[in-house]
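Request: Not sure, any thoughts?
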Amino acid sequence: MKNFAIFLLQLCLLYSESFQSSSFPSINSSRSASNSKLHNIFGNLFGEKSSQPIDEENKQSFANTGPVASIFTIPTKEIKSKPLRFYLQLFLVSQQNFPVKGSWLLATNEEDTERLDLYYADGTGMVSILLDDNGIIVRRQGKRPSLQYMLQESVLLHKLVDEIEQIAFGDGNEGGNNDNLIVDEKRLIQFASENNNVLTEVRKNLPARQERS
């Protein structure tokens, strides 16, 4: 036990020396960088696999950095944006800890109430989901999104498209009870007849296939 304590002390000294001589990317604050480096040393030492979550300070600083790129747009004939936003918010909350705890951070935007922002734990990228009268717009923001971010973004968006498909076309016929059938006028999303295959086209353009259990 004594030898192990000495070993940990030596690691701390090595970390202190390297921290004083290192420079960190401007996207993160110095406090976040030091926390991340400590996590790399001790998290890996004890076999910790979860990602370091983004704190509030980093989330706010990241929101105004990096170019914005369009991922896909889903045009709709009719959309009930407020209830749909609430429904999608519940879905996205359920995805925050996939594939590991703290992978994503869902944040509501006070200035734009029709938008949902998801920040990835490594701080390199963010997904924005915007609902307007013409449909659903999904964008990415980040200076240099990591390979891990791009992979998990694709997995997440495949699930999002599945959820939208269920909202738009699910019959609600659970247990064979026809009383639960949803008429088109009550759906949160409706597509024009010429755009009924729009979700299939969106899936084709996503770089990774959805994981199947």
The mean pLDDT is 76. The longest strand covers residues 68-75. The radius of gyration is 21 Å.
